[in-house]
Amino acid sequence: MAGDEGATVHVPTALIEPATSAAPGAAAAPAIARRFLIVTAPFNAFARELAQALRAKGITVERVLLNAGDWLYWGWRDAIAYRGRVKDWEAWIGRQIRDRGVTDIITFGDTTHYASAALRAARALGVETHIFEEGYFRPNWITLERDGINALSSLPRDPAWYAAHPLASVPEPDGQIGPAVGAMVRQMSVYHIVMMLGALAFPHFRTGYQDGVFAQGVGHVFRYGGAGLAAGRNKRALARALASSGQVFLVLLQRPGDSQLRIHSPFDHVVTFIRDVMTSFARNAPPDACLLIRPHPLDPGLTNYRRVIARIARELKVEGRVDYADYGKLHEVLPKMRGVVCVNSTAGLAGVEFGIPTITLGEALYDMPGLTHQGELDDFWRAPQAPRPGLYLAFRRVLMGLTQINGGYATPRARKMALETCVSRLLAPRTAPAEVTA
Known about the structure:
Layout: H1 13-16, E1 35-38, H2 46-55, E2 60-65, H3 68-74, E3 79-81, H4 89-99, E4 104-108, H5 113-124, E5 128-134, E6 141-145, H6 159-164, H7 181-197, H8 213-225, H9 227-242, E7 248-252, H10 259-263, H11 270-284, E8 290-294, H12 305-316, E9 322-324, H13 330-333, E10 339-342, H14 347-353, E11 358-360, H15 377-380, H16 389-403, E12 404-406, H17 412-427
Parallel strand pairs: 1-2, 1-4, 2-3, 4-5, 7-8, 7-10, 8-9, 10-11
Antiparallel strand pairs: 5-6, 6-12
Helix pairs in contact: 2-17, 3-7, 4-5, 11-12
């Protein structure tokens, strides 16, 4: 079957031998046929539809199946099932890339074990890498980069580079993808249910999540199912914070177990982040300042943050100055804030967009002078550094032109908007970032 390691396809000689100059008058060597291998993808039909669009251009596309959820949205056609152990994955994927003559691999994200190991193997073999992710600017955008995303992006952290880039003066598209959260939640739920039901077929697959899939599913049901019951308490907490006579600082929590938290920050858990922020706030913030703590939209609700925050507030003697509210639209809350504290969430970029002083406590692509606070957290409470509006606009437009694609993953409409540009970017020759044009 497709996943058997014994089936070997020899690499075309052109892929493993250096090119030589042709003699004068000799015919040019034919271009190497592109062969794409999709390793990880969003929890929906995006990978299948992208493969169809690439095949329409004459490109060969295969996909690795790591679990039954992958099979659900792909099927068995052009599939390579991996049923081995995590420790053997990198060697196995390297053999697949080499033996199948793969020229390009695609991953969704770059920090999960399966994605990061595949990217290392591909680069060691000189194979092009393409990394999709949720958009830096949401909800109407998705990300596609060659070398890494967010903290691993190859784009500079130099404000002057963005200000001087030709794309800084190019207006961005403004296509709207429409409602997508409901579809995304349904697709993730179905994917993980099928993944669990098919676990015997992929006995060694590991999600890498901090919490089990079943527990997360139950948590999501209770969090969103009980949203109406908790709405009154959350509305009161938000209103109380906004009615404060002092300055209010917004703390944006990361999704528990998120690799951006585990790999690109000093925090091992969301609660560790909360405690550090609250401790700094208690010691250094003006006495009339308040904290408003907001959960990640995809938090499964397995940790009772309200109780955790109340306990820490009592320990630090800041009761009445810290509120937790799982309510309100971010763009309506932000204008009322004195500052934003986050790990490295792209939601922090929304704070920068609104001109709100923002500090990231982890590694982030947008953490640079002129966009985010460059001092310590202890100093942020009394002297937060505001972003420069002109620099933010240049940064946004350059990122839009180089890394963002108008569209989404969750709905047919959003995918249709994105696919043509996705294919164009995937097939374009590698270019230095400064040379890319809109």
